[in-house]
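=== RUN LOG ===
request id: a7f3
mode: sequence -> structure
chains: 1
length: 323
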Amino acid sequence: MPLPLRPWVLLLTGLLLLVAQPALSEWRLVSQNLNRFFDDIDDPEDDRVLGSKRYRKRVQQLAEKIERSFALPEVVALQEVEKRAILEQVADAIEKNSGRRYRALLIDGNDLSGMDVGYLVDEGLEVRRLEPLFADRKYRFRRNGRSIVAPLYARPPLRLEFCRDGDCFTLVNVHLRSMRGLRKSAESGRIAKKRRLQAETLARWVNRFQREHPRQPLALVGDFNALRPSDAFVDVIGTLIGQPDQHRPRLASPDLVDPDLTDTSLQLPRKKRWSYRYRKRRQLLDYLLLNQKADKQLEAIRYSGIDYRFSDHAALIARFRQP
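=== RESULT ===
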C-alpha cells in the first residue's frame, strides 16, 4: 500500500512545477533575416538550390540558434526563407533537441527568387489570425517607354495575431524593398517610388488598425531596409511611425499615422544601434515599431552580434510583459 504524500512534499512539487514553466506574464520575440535560406529541392521558379549536406547543416544551425542563442523565444519572425517546409524541419529539429514545439507559419509571396517571411510560434500560443497584407496590390511604372504593372510587395507583410490567457497581440513581419540601385541605377526613380508606396500603404493600414482596434497592441518587426535619418530619396521609418521627414527626402510623404508609433531602437545607446554592415560601416536595417499599447508592454530590446556563418544580419531580441 503506497504511503500518503505529506503536505510539504505536495507543496514542494507544486513549486517545482511552477519554476519549470515559463512565466505566463511575459513573452519574447526574435526577428532574424536568414540571408536567402533555400532548401535542397530544385523548384522551377527558384534560382538557387543548396546541396543536401549544406541544407541539413543550415537547418540544424538555425535550430541551435533558436535553442541556445535565443533561448527558445515564444515567437520568431524570420525573413528571407524559401518555404514553410524549411521552417517545419527547423521546428522538428528544435523539438527533437529540446522538447519545445513550434508551429511553422508562412504564406508564399511574389518574390521571383522565392524568398518569403514567416514565423515560428510556440504551440502554447493560440494563433487567431495569419494573413498576408497587400499580396495582390499592384503599382505601375514605365520601362523603355512601356507601362508595366507589377506587385507592390515582393514579400507581402505577414500579419499574425496570437493570444494567451485572453490577451492578444498583433505582429506584422516585414521585409521591404532594399535600397540597392537607388543612387546609380537607371531604375533609381522606380525603386524610390516603390519604396515610398510600400511605406505609405503600410502606414495607412497601421492608422486604420489603430482606429479599429484601439485596445490591441501592435508591432511591426523585420528587415525594413531603411535608415534613420532617412536616405536621400524616401523616409521609410519616419513614414511608418508618423514622423516623416519633410525636408531631406526627394519623395516626401505625408503624415499618415496618428497616434505615432515608437521606434524602439532609440532606447538603445547609439553604439549598440545597428544590425548590418555595409562596406564596413554599421547600419540599422532591422526595427521594432510599436503602437502605444505594445510600447507599454515592452521590457527590453537588444541586437545580437552578427554571426556571418549564419547570416549577414544581427537578430533583434525583445521581451514583453502581458498586462
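=== NOTES ===
The first strand starts at residue 26 and ends at 37.
The chain has a mean pLDDT of 92.
=== END ===
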